[in-house]
Amino acid sequence: MEFYVNPYDGVPVYLQIIQLVRNGVALGTLHPGDQLPTVRELAVKLAVNPNTVAKAYRDLEREGMVETVSGKGTFVREGRVGVETERLEHMVEMLVIEARNAGLTVDDLIERLEKHRQYSAKDHDQGGSS
User: Fold this and answer.
1) What's the rounded Cα separation, in Å, for the pair 26 and 21?
2) Where do the domains of the chain lie, and which CATH numbers do they carry?
3) Sequence-separated contacts (24+) of 78-86 with Cβ below 8 Å
4) Which of 11, 22, 60, 92 has CB atoms 3.0–4.6 Å from 66's, for a disulfide?
5) Cα separation of 68 and 115, whole Å?
6) 35 and 73 Cβ atoms separated by less than 8 Å
7) Which among 57, 1, 52, 58 has a CA at the least distance from the CA of 24?
8) pLDDT tens digits along 37-91
9) Residue 23's CB: how many other CB atoms inside 10 A?
10) Where is the HTH gntR-type domain (predicted)?
C-alpha cells in the first residue's frame, strides 16, 4: 500500500496516516498480518517528523487496528471483530440518521446497499477492486 499525505489539507498529518490505514483495511489493500512501514521509513517517505508517524501508530494500536511487536515492526492486527463491529454499528447509526435527514428511508438505504453489493461482487469476480 502506498502512503500519501497532503500537508496543506488542514487535517493533521497523523490523522491522515490513521485514515489511510483504516481505509486500507476497509478496502482490503491491507490485510491482517500485513506489516506497515517502520516509523523511520514512513517519516522519510512522507517527509514528516518521525514523532508524527509514531503518534499515528500509537493511536492505531490503542484502537486495536495494529499491533507492534518489539524488534519486528507494526502489523495490521488479526481478530479485530469486536472493535470493528462496534465502530461499524456506530457508522450504521450515523448513516441512518443522515439518510433520514436527507429524506431517505431505511428501505432506500437497503436498496442502495444492494446495488453496491452487486457492483462490488462484479468487480471482485472480474479481478477489479471496488
Assistant:
1) 9
2) 13-76 (1.10.10.10), 85-121 (no CATH)
3) 78/32, 78/33, 79/32, 80/32
4) 60
5) 38
6) yes
7) 1
8) 999 999 999 999 999 999 999 999 998 899 999 999 999 998 654 455 667 777 8
9) 12
10) 11-79
